[in-house]
Specification:
By secondary structure, the protein is α+β, with helices and mostly antiparallel strands. The chain has two helices and nine strands; from the N terminus they run αβββββαββββ. The strands form two sheets. Strands 1, 2, 3, 6 and 7 form a five-stranded antiparallel sheet that branches. The chain has a four-stranded antiparallel sheet with strand order 5-4-8-9. A hairpin with a 7-residue loop joins strand 8 (149-159) and strand 9 (167-170). The radius of gyration is 24 Å and the shape is elongated. The termini are far apart.
């Protein structure tokens, strides 16, 4: 009887050991597919002798787990250093709009979107030597989408005092998931 009990315990341990990796795999985070693009954006309110362009790279990522699509974006920038240190007057607004779209022939309809406005404060922040470079990752958004969905990013910049309001800068969307 002891021998059968021992074999049953060993068999249970073997089953539990093989079940753990499967459970771990089932609970693993979905794999994200990403695309990046970089744009050089001119500060159209400044027309002086110093360089005023911002290089802004946006990486847009999407993943699928079952019927749910997850998306996030990361913004990286390298701005000019002619502005004063920690100049809070560069922008009247800066935000990244992250969208989940259903992939269709023609225009892909937006099924979910969120604006992330924390970008403005981060872009206006600088190092003590007035260098403006940094990165910001959005929180993840999700939506129960049908087959074939993707994420898209649009950067909106409103330069302080230029009178033009938000200027739209579109970036590469993620691959379809």
């Amino acid at each position: 009887m002891t021998r059968i009990k021992y074999m049953t315990t060993a068999a249970a341990l073997a089953v539990a050991t093989t079940a753990v990796p499967a459970a771990t795999i089932a609970m693993a985070a979905p794999a994200y597919w990403c695309s990046s693009s970089t744009k050089t954006i001119d500060d159209n309110r400044y027309d002086g002798p110093w360089p005023d362009n911002w290089d802004v790279k946006v990486t847009t990522c999407a993943a699928r787990s079952g019927g749910t699509v997850y998306a996030y974006a990361e913004v990286q920038w390298d701005g000019p250093s002619y502005y004063p240190v920690d100049d809070t007057g560069i922008f009247d607004g800066a935000k990244l709009r992250l969208q989940i779209k259903q992939a269709r022939d023609g225009t892909d309809p937006v099924v979910s979107e969120a604006d992330f406005t924390a970008l403005e404060d981060r872009m206006e922040d600088s190092t003590p030597s007035s260098k403006r470079h940094g990165r910001y990752r959005t929180p993840t958004i999700s939506y129960r989408a049908g087959p074939g969905a993707l994420a898209d990013s649009v950067l909106f910049l409103d330069w302080h005092g230029d009178g033009h309001g938000y200027q739209r800068h579109e970036y590469a969307g993620s691959p379809t998931v």
